[in-house]
Specification:
CATH architecture: Orthogonal Bundle
Shape: elongated
Strand content: 5-15%
Helix content: 55-70%
Distance between the termini: 36 Å
CATH class: Mainly Alpha
Number of domains: 1
Radius of gyration: 19 Å
Order of helices and strands: HHHEHHEEHH
Number of helices: 7
Largest sheet: 3 strands, antiparallel
CATH superfamily: Winged helix-like DNA-binding domain superfamily/Winged helix DNA-binding domain
Length: 166
């Protein structure tokens, strides 16, 4: 991942210093801001890697999830639950993937109220190529060694599972 940073200082660190002077403890603010900035940087790199295949990283995640299903198809509600996204977002993603010929949408014969999504042969081909491209850039986290990647994953796991709505 290349940096386009032109500042001679870390803006998050500077914001933390000012926060500390004017508001109070900056620990949580710096961490949240750092997570958001890293998320933007990683997502930009991932989107760039899969762009040649006509998809975004969000669409890639759907393709991967569908490829992991035992039956080859998943209800749209399960896609949303597993990717932790709103049902409207799932519908939008599936609409775009279907328009590209990468997934099909069918009615579940066991429960006609449910809509299933499954990969097409073209979806499988794109998934394979996009996965190779993402592996080539170490999913944009290759600046951390494997041990640090595991530590970061473990630290972020508790945040992912937190109930922020309580």
């Amino acid at each position: 991942m290349t940096s386009t940073r032109t500042l001679d200082f870390d803006p998050i660190e500077r914001a933390g210093e000012l926060w500390g002077e004017r508001i109070g403890d900056a620990t949580a603010m710096r961490l949240a801001t750092s997570i958001m900035r890293v998320q933007q940087m990683v997502l930009a790199a991932l989107d760039t890697a899969v762009k040649p295949f006509g998809i975004t990283f969000a669409r890639y995640e759907v393709l991967v999830l569908l490829s992991f299903s035992r039956s080859g198809a998943l209800p749209l509600s399960k896609v949303g639950e597993r990717l932790m996204v709103h049902p409207t977002s799932v519908t939008n993603l599936i609409d775009r993937l279907e328009a590209q010929g990468l997934v099909t949408r069918t009615t579940d014969v066991a429960d006609r109220r449910r809509i299933l999504a499954s990969l097409t042969a073209e979806g499988k081909r794109v998934l394979k190529q996009a996965t190779a491209a993402l592996n080539d850039i170490d999913f944009a986290v290759g600046t951390l060694d494997a041990s640090d990647q595991e530590k970061a994953y473990d630290l972020l796991r508790s945040l992912r599972s937190a109930d922020f709505e309580s």
